[in-house]
Write a structure and sequence with these properties.
With 268 residues, the chain is of the alpha/beta class. It contains 12 helices and 8 strands. It folds into 2 domains: 160 residues, NAD(P)-binding Rossmann-like Domain (Rossmann fold), CATH 3.40.50; 89 residues, ProC C-terminal domain-like (ProC C-terminal domain-like fold). The chain binds NADP nicotinamide-adenine-dinucleotide phosphate.
């Protein structure tokens, strides 16, 4: 199918669903006239759909009837009621679930067999076409639906498949960690401001440095340790900074943060 002709629906049009929609529009990966959305608050929905030029629908069943791929974008505790309520219209459609913790088995327990769904965790950089979609390798999309899912959403995110037991951890790495990066940027900027740079100068270089360093690592295929070593001149200044980071437990802070998130997820 020509992806520009693919009809994409959003059941729930909150923060994450609208970020995905914005990514599709930014990257020209879908035509606004082929995008459908619903939410509970019609007034808010009409404003959000109007500003994007997409179609506002009355409910999940209307979205499903109009779409080839339906993004299930409600809160995890709302998924069961929403998919059961629209089950007839969802039959035969490709459901792309973004609800945290609602995996393949949960969908089976809500809908039984005979539906086409894939459970994922996307992250917010998808709004600018630079996202990650952590997708459960166990799914029930047809070959054609999977191809369409990858063709459409692969334009705004890197899609990585994980076994069911790693889905939640993948979500921590892709979905929670952007907040760690925001703190890193803010803290590094604080250090630069403390030493005399203006805040706007700091924010104009730090994010680009981060994008550049990550892009360089991905494109060169080099190990991060090798790249770090290459900028640490013996007896130089960068190694002094690295040593200070080790002294203050920078690496362990990140490992500990992942441990704590997973502890919290397991207790929920
Ligand atoms: N935010 C993230 O970074 C992130 C990352 C990965 C995954 N997720 C997942 O994305 C999902 C949405 O999260 P969010 O942060 O976008 O939440 P949100 O902003 O609260 O959005 C929830 C949306 O669902 C709508 N809704 C609720 N009940 C509905 C119903 N019966 N029929 C149709 N629409 C209904 C809400 O409409 P009203 O506003 O009108 O009530 C709202 O548009 C969650 O399952 C979450 O786990 C979020």
């Amino acid at each position: 199918m020509d992806i520009k002709k693919a009809k994409v629906g959003f059941v729930g049009f909150g923060n994450m669903a609208s970020a995905i929609c914005d990514g599709l529009l930014t990257r020209n990966a879908a035509d606004p006239s082929n995008i459908y959305a619903c939410a509970r608050d019609q007034e808010k929905l009409l404003a959000k759909c109007g500003s994007r030029g997409i179609n506002a629908c009355a409910d999940a069943a209307e979205v499903a009837a109009a779409s080839d791929i339906v993004v299930i974008g409600v809160l995890p505790q709302q998924v069961e009621g929403v998919v059961k309520g629209a089950a007839d219209a969802l039959k035969g459609k490709a459901m792309f679930s973004i609800a945290a913790g609602i995996d393949f088995d949960r969908y089976i327990s809500y809908l039984g067999e005979g539906f086409n769904h894939i459970s994922t965790i996307p992250n917010t950089p998808i709004a600018v076409g630079e996202g990650i979609i952590i997708a459960e390798s166990r799914h029930s999309l047809t070959e054609e639906q999977l191809e369409l899912f990858e063709d459409v959403f692969g334009q705004i995110a890197k899609i990585e498949y994980f076994s069911s037991d790693l889905l939640s951890l993948g979500g921590t790495g892709a979905g929670c960690a952007p907040a760690f990066v925001d703190v890193f940027i803010e803290a590094l900027a604080d250090g630069l401001v403390k030493n005399g740079m203006t805040r706007s100068q700091a924010y104009s270089i730090v994010p680009q440095m981060l994008v550049g360093a990550a892009t360089y690592m991905m494109k060169s295929g080099k190990h991060p340790g090798e790249l770090k070593d290459a900028v640490c001149t013996p007896g130089g200044t960068t190694i002094v900074g690295i040593s200070a980071l080790e002294e203050t437990g920078f690496r362990h802070s990140l490992i500990y943060a992942v441990d704590k998130i997973m502890e919290k997820k397991h207790s929920m």
